[in-house]
Description:
The chain is α+β, with helices and mostly antiparallel strands. It has helices at residues 3-47, 161-169, 198-201, 219-222; strands at 51-53, 61-64, 70-73, 77-83, 94-103, 109-118, 133-141, 146-153, 174-181, 189-197, 231-242. The strands form 2 sheets. Strands 1, 4, 5, 6, 7, 8, 9, 10 and 11 form a 9-stranded antiparallel β-sheet that branches. A hairpin with a 5-residue loop joins β2 and β3.
Amino acid sequence: MNWSNWATIADLATALGTLVLAVATFSAVRSANLTARIAQESLLVGLRPVLMPSRRDDPLQKVNFGDKHWVRIPGGGAVGEVGCGDGSMGSDPAIYLAVSLRNAGSGIAVLHGWRFYPGWHRDDTHAPLEEFVRQTRDLFIPVGDFGFWQGAMRDVSDPQYGPAREIIENLKAWTVELLYGDHEGGQRAITRFTMLRFGDMNPDADPHADGAGDGDGDADADADTGSGAGSGWLVSQSRHWNIDRPDPR
Length: 249
């Protein structure tokens, strides 16, 4: 065998070794990328909030609005009232809305905004993000714990004001979509909640439906500065959408 044959064999061996090394490198990189994706997903799952209605046996919550109007939300319930508060935010009657919620996820929930619908809204798609009303203050709901959402309509020229006031004053069903995410600002989601009167679900009156105080002697918290149109809606969750990742369905 002359030198040219040996050179050919050496070249083939080198090429084969390079191919084996390339395959091994590709496999290692692919495995590392998969491990990194799994680690990242595990981290995101640990930060991911999921909002649901609170339990019926969760404590009553007292919520204050900017004009010192107080509402009381029973566990698993919602409140809708019409009033003027102390007048510091305008003399026109405002529509006060609040919902008792529970975070069933593994990360702190931060509420970003809301979209109100009069009646029982049943569309398969959520409202465009630009239609959501931004929260005027950050609302946090801890992991595995209960909290609340609150919103108010004060502009009587708002097209939603009239229908919303009619719904609340006539004690009819209403719907709200809540936009929220984790405390890092990501993993945004939208959950739709529908509020139905207790009487529509159960002929027996709910003990918290009249919005009575809890008798703790807190005069400031128990004071209701608005006219009030009643409370006592039962919260029902109907839809959930992911914004920053694939939908669950």
